[in-house]
Amino acid sequence: MQLLRRWFFGRGAVIAVPFVFLLVFFLFPFLIVGKISVSEMEVVSFKDVVTFSDGVLQLTLKFGNYVFITEDPLYFQTYLASLRYAAATMVLCLFIGYPFAYFMARAKPSHQPVLLMLVMLPFWTSFLLRVYAWRGLLTDGGWAADAIIGLGLDHVLLAAGLITTEGKLMHTPFSLVLGMVYTYLPFMILPLYGNLAKMDLRLLEAAADLGATPWTAFWTITVPLSKAGIIAGSMLVFIPCVGEFVIPELLGGPETLMIGRVLWDEFFSNNDWPMASSVAVVMVLLIIVPLAIFNKYQAEAQESRR
Amino acid sequence: MTPTTRPAGDPAFLQIQNVVKDFGGVRAVDDVSVNIGKGEIFALLGSSGCGKSTLLRMLAGFETPSAGRIVLGGRDLSTLPPYERPMNMMFQSYALFPHLSVWENIAFGLKREGLPKAQIADRVDAMLKLVQLEKFGQRKPHQLSGGQQQRVALARSLAKQPQLLLLDEPLGALDKKLREQTQIELVNIIESVGVTCVMVTHDQEEAMTMASRIAIMSEGCFLQVGAPGDIYETPATRFVADFIGNVNLMDGSLDVDAPDHCIIGCADCQHFVGHGITGSEGMAVTVALRPEKIALTREQPEGTHNQVRGTIEEMSYFGSFTVYRLKLASGAMLKVSQSNTQRHRDDALTWGDSAWAHWADTAQVVLTQ
Amino acid sequence: MKASKTGIWFGRGWLSLGFAFLYLPIVALVVFSFNDSAIPNQWRGFTLKWYAQLARDEEMLGGLWLSLQIALFTACGAVVLGTLAAFALVKYKRFTGRTLFSGMVNAPLVMPEVVVGLSLLLMLVSVQRALGFPERGMLTIWIGHLLLGTAYAAVVIQSRLQDLNPQLEEAAMDLGARPHQVFWLVTLPMIAQSLIAAWLLTFTVSLDDVVLSAFLSGPGSTTLPLVIFSRARLGLNPSVNAVATLIIVVVAIGVVLASWLIARNERQRSAELAAAGRH
Do A283 and A188 belong together in one domain? Predict the structure, then answer.
């Protein structure tokens, strides 16, 4: 009784409550998705996977959905496209975000809180609204559309294959990637900034003292030390981008099909729950490796703070 | 200010009995036993990693001994949690609660006891008076200087009138000038309250000036326990002799062993020691000689023992004294410390000079381990 | 170490362009909410009619009310669960299933919402089939948001907990406080600021969520983002600009106020510390 009391009110409760919550509402649903992905859809419910009748235990696993996914070129292409767009977004966010975070971290200490606040402010305002705003900016007659066409950049984009028709910037790979980079940029900047701001500047002084130019010092010292921030930011951008739905829906077009939309359509339009589940399972399998990297980074970050 | 009064209370007030602590595969505290008297100030002295902090934490209750017992006033405390033990600790980082005022910090422990408000107020005021911070009651910790914070931490740890006070590197965070001042104040307060005190430190000066008895710790074991003077002048082993203060260690063999004297032959000199030792002739011994026990002269002194000639290789000037390093015939170095009793000497020794070092026959300690 | 002149100007240029990029849509939203035209990206004239319309827009207002309620419950629940999770991860180094637990706490941060939404919905439907409860609606949306919010809250609170000096809690125990007293009297006041930050963060995340809400909502439980989303899908709509501007104004005031308060706090402390250092 004594033991039960201690366990219940002490450490046990602290761990158990969130643990059970997550098991029930996060892990268990995944198992259900797995099960449904191999079930046969019967009007509005599923045929049981395991049935017992006339003394016969029958296991009915329908792998048809998975076969379909691997055979149908559309699914394969869409998965591939999702990975490509996510990767492109990650790289662009890194390219734009790293110097951004760097210059923020090197700014005068009294300016830094203001800069941080300015980066956080868009983050706190609804992302849906800001993505919607890009529609207005990129549709014919919008500010950004006019500016890009006026500068002649649309020819560049056409040549790069990012848009298909001159002058039409909406619902193209360009608008999609622009929207995703825009939305996920703070997710790249903030971990990088956190990492770079904590860097000991005396290391750079030591490097200079030993004869390194600022450029060399940057590549040999600053960048390697910010590796943790780069990985964190990259994973925070890449993984959710793979399954993005809202941005492709609002800014993407017919040729920018991403797997998030496929899942949505299977579920809401086709009402094919097993199919949607199979799509989800394959999506998770695709991001398992980056997920593991991210989790490992989080655990390491915890350790190093001790 | 070394406490000069020997405590008159129970000499086995705190008993540490065969205490062992293992962390995974590492043994941090290895079968340690000692009795500490009521009212004593006892220091655990050692370098980092020797297990002194672990032992202190076991006394406080933050770690449980893997084996052994901790008995205070006849009561076995080994398995009690910290909040049920009648001892209080002053932490190295002071650990003052930043969101509470000085007054509330000191009152914290008293409130947990459920004392009536009036009594708490009296006790807190008395504590503030004890550490001379009467006017600072309403301030928050970050508004105080380092020395003031330390006094609050001390007041807080004494507020509950604990049977045992534990100090974790009490002077570690202070600069040198402040340290001397605080050492005296601290000992005064502890003695006026009369509480038994166990402190942990890596600073020899701190241990020797503040404690009535010291335990030298290394790799989880007690190497020697005794009063500061005893440890300094009569170290039990080479390690202890080397650990405390500066020392010259000369290896040699026991040539003559008589009841009232012995002669030890070393590479550079012959020692005549004014007392006998237990041992057999011919056995290997080490002679420990403190630098301040050696005198330097230009002329050779009388006799053949307890003297050696050398060349001054190095000199370090410390203001009130100078440390010379003499190179001896065998190539070994001898450290000699001389008080600068005169402001200016024309015949002062300098680099390259040849000099004779000599000492009394009571100056050496003969070590067999 | 002084940066070179070109370095400084390059830096300023990059930051300026970056901020311009970040704020362009926000500015556009606000400007065109006053635009007297049904096509909200070409300026015709100044008007406040979209705001007047907004006041009568039942669908939008209903969505706002629902979203606020859900966000409130989410924030409160997420802070509690997040604190427990953060505690478990920071204080207890070893327990069975720690790696799994850590993975589950961090995963919702990055897992694509379509996956989380689908799986949670399928589970809730199965439960409903078996037990007859819960119906899809506010409760189910709340559960989904709570899941996401807990992950965010745990990250924020965890980082503050780790920075906490463990000797403070030991000192409290040494002075006679039992473990639960230590939490309420010492730990909680010290992490209070991060709890508030976590609350605000999860409130915002819940208020803004589209995908989870879409999967988990039922008839009659349409949140504000869902209303906006369905309108945005159809095309450009000035009512959306109006609501956007209002949200932006509220958030901007909140963020600026919070930053100012924090900065003032910091200045006060530095001044006190400097004063203390003198004696």
Answer: yes
Q: Using CA atoms, how far apart are residues B152 and B160, in angstroms rounded to an integer?
A: 14
Task: Assess whether pLDDT exceeds 70 at residue A47.
Answer: no
Q: Under a CB-based contact definition with an 8 Å cutoff, are residues A252 and A176 in contact?
A: yes
Chains that contact B by 3+ CB pairs under 8 Å? Answer: C
* Choice between A156 and B126, residue whose per-residue pLDDT is larger: B126
pLDDT tens column, C7-22: 788 888 889 998 999 8
A98 and A178 together in one domain: yes
The DSSP output letter for C134 is P
Q: Do C95 and C132 belong to one domain?
A: yes
B93 contacts C165? CB cut-off 8 A: yes
In a domain? residue C225: yes
Q: Of B60, B83, B91, which has the smallest distance from its Cβ to C176's Cβ?
A: B83
Q: How many distinct structural domains can be found in chain C?
A: 2
Q: Do A46 and A173 belong together in one domain? A: no
Number of residues that this document lists for chain B:
369
How far apart (Å, rounded) are the C-alpha atoms in residues B212 and B228?
A: 7
Interatomic CA distance for residues C6 and C20, integer angstroms: 21
Q: Which residue has the higher pLDDT, B8 or A181?
A: A181
Q: Decide if pLDDT at A141 tops 90.
A: no
Range of the domain at A41: 2-59
Query: What is the average per-residue pLDDT within B222-229?
Result: 94
Contact B3, B212 (CB under 8 A): yes
This prediction's pTM: 0.85
DSSP B298-312: SSPPSSSSSEEEEEE
Residue C247 and residue C154 share a domain: no
What is the average pLDDT value for chain A, to the nearest integer?
A: 85
Question: For residue A303, how far is the Cα from the chain centroid?
Answer: 25
- Give how many domains chain A has, as a whole number: 2
Q: Between B and C, how many CB-CB pairs are < 8 A?
A: 69
Residue A245: predicted pLDDT? 93
Cα–Cα distance, B198 to B163 (Å, whole number): 11
Contact A14 C87 (CB under 8 A): yes
CA gap B58, B60 in Å, rounded: 5
φ/ψ (deg, to 5) at B27: -95, 105
C-beta separation of B86 from B162 below 8 A = yes
Which pLDDT score is estimated for B195? 93
Is C5 contained in some domain?
no
- Using CA atoms, how far residue C164 sits from A291, C159, C161, C191, C212, in Å, is 29, 9, 5, 8, 34
User: b/e map of A241-278 (b: 16 or more CB within 10 Å)?
Assistant: bbbbbbbbbbbbbeebbbbbbbbbebbeeeeebbbbbb
ipTM, two decimals: 0.85
Comparing CB atoms, the residue among C175, C185, C190 nearest residue B88 is C175
Which residues in chain C have Cβ-Cβ distances shorter than 8 Å to B144?
276
From A39's Cα to the closest Cα of chain C, the distance in A is: 13
pLDDT at C34: 85
Residues C167 and C257 in one domain: no
Please indicate whether, in this complex, the C-beta atoms of B95 and C177 are within 8 angstroms of each other. Answer: no
Measured between CB atoms, does C165 come within 8 Å of chain B?
yes
**Same domain, yes or no, for C228 and C247?**
no
Say whether both A136 and A272 belong to one domain.
yes
By C-alpha distance, the chain C residue nearest B82 is C174
Question: For residues A62 and B89, which has the higher predicted lDDT (pLDDT)?
Answer: B89
CA B208 vs. chain centroid, Å, equals 4
Name the minimum distance, in Å, from the CA of C88 to any CA of chain B.
Answer: 19
| Neighbour count for residue B138 (Cβ, 10 Å) | 10
**CB–CB of B99 and C189 under 8 A?**
yes
Domains annotated on chain B, with CATH = 1-86+169-245 (3.40.50.300), 96-161 (no CATH), 246-367 (2.40.50.100)
| Helix and strand element counts for chain B (H, E) | 8, 20
